[in-house]
Amino acid sequence: MQVNQPQGGTAEATTTPMAVGDKVCYVAMSGGGQQYQLSARTGVIEAIDGSVATVRATNGRSITKPLNKLTPDGKPNALTRMLMGGQ
Fold first, then answer.
1. Which of 2, 30, 36, 51 is least enclosed, having the fewest CB within 10 Å?
2. For the chain, which residues make up each domain, given as ranges?
3. How crowded is residue 5: how many other Cβ atoms within 10 Å of its Cβ?
4. pTM of the entire predicted model
């Protein structure tokens, strides 16, 4: 059996650089056992250390998230893209 795979081009993916003070969205997972809940949350970047950002959530708590898990506010977040089929 032969598998055909598309060849990649020379174009590189571009990401929006994020900075301290930017409003961002992220996906939070809660629950446990047999039930989990995904929710889209917003916050403001307080600090960036390498590829990890400290985000002040709207509830006042600070959390750390990898930069690749954050989306600029107003853009489709990971949960929205998943529900739309990756568009």
1. 2
2. 23-30+37-83
3. 5
4. 0.69
More confident site: 15 or 82: 82
pLDDT tens for 31-78 read 888 899 888 899 999 999 999 999 999 899 999 999 999 999 888 877
- The arrangement of strands across the sheet holding 62-66 comes to 62-66, 52-57, 35-49, 23-32, 71-72
Q: In the structure encoding, which two tokens stand for residue 69, read together?
A: 């898990």
| CATH fold for the domain made of 23-30+37-83 | SH3 type barrels. (2.30.30)
Integer Cα distance of 71 and 23 in angstroms: 9
Coil, helix or strand at residue 67? helix
Q: With left for phi above 0 and alpha for psi between -120 and 50, is residue 71 left, alpha or beta?
A: beta
